[in-house]
């Protein structure tokens, strides 16, 4: 139960951070430019590529699955040390930090025995979300979850 409580608290915090980032992105500065810049010029963030990989949930009621995502800059170079949030519907499954190859992953084993969660995962897939930073733009990737026999 402690892990569920911790994940719910993390989910709430990530939702707050996401809302704040959305507000900043939609903010208009004093010269009517979007991007929240402070010098009157539009914020020029670099676009990124975020891809999520399809995964299979294991048997026994789809007890667990591993979400994987890759974050690359506009030239295809891995972006290291950035947080990727993995979601099924509105539920944050977990977070991962990109490694030297731009890869992040999370295992959803904490949702063991939640058939409603797994039904949603199999029917809608999962989403990998990068909220961006001062240099890079936010991005999302989507992938499918399929049942697998153990």
Task: Describe what is shown at a glance.
Helices cover 23% and strands 32% of the residues. The protein has helices at 2-26, 115-124; strands spanning 48-53, 55-57, 66-73, 83-88, 91-97, 103-107, 126-130, 139-143, 145-147.
* Count of runs of 4 or more consecutive helical residues: 2
How many DSSP-defined strands?
9
Radius of gyration: 17 Å
Largest sheet: 4 strands, antiparallel
Beta-strand portion reads 25-35%
**Average pLDDT metric:** 77
Structural class: alpha+beta
In spatial order, strands of the major sheet run 5-4-7-8
In helices, the fraction of residues equals 10-25%
Plain-language structure description:
The chain is globular, with a radius of gyration of 17 Å. The chain is of the alpha+beta class. The chain has helices at 2-26, 115-124, and strands at residues 48-53, 55-57, 66-73, 83-88, 91-97, 103-107, 126-130, 139-143, 145-147. The two termini are 26 Å apart. Mean pLDDT is 77; it is low at 28-41. The protein is built from two helices and nine strands; from the N terminus they run H-E-E-E-E-E-E-H-E-E-E.
